[in-house]
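**User:** Hello, beginner here. Are you able to go through the protein record under this note? It all follows right here:
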Amino acid sequence: MLIFRFLLFSLLGASVLCFAFYIGTGQARFRHWGLVILKWTVVAALVFFGVLILSRIA
């Protein structure tokens, strides 16, 4: 569980870093990568919390 939490926060930090590069440079590729990383971070978080909820129910 600790590894997964570390992975989620690392992905979130990478997304923020990509958005910071986009603001600094204005290059659209950093915004694109930031959105892709953010999307998969949200998907991973939903799966993680879904597993936690199912384990509490069972």
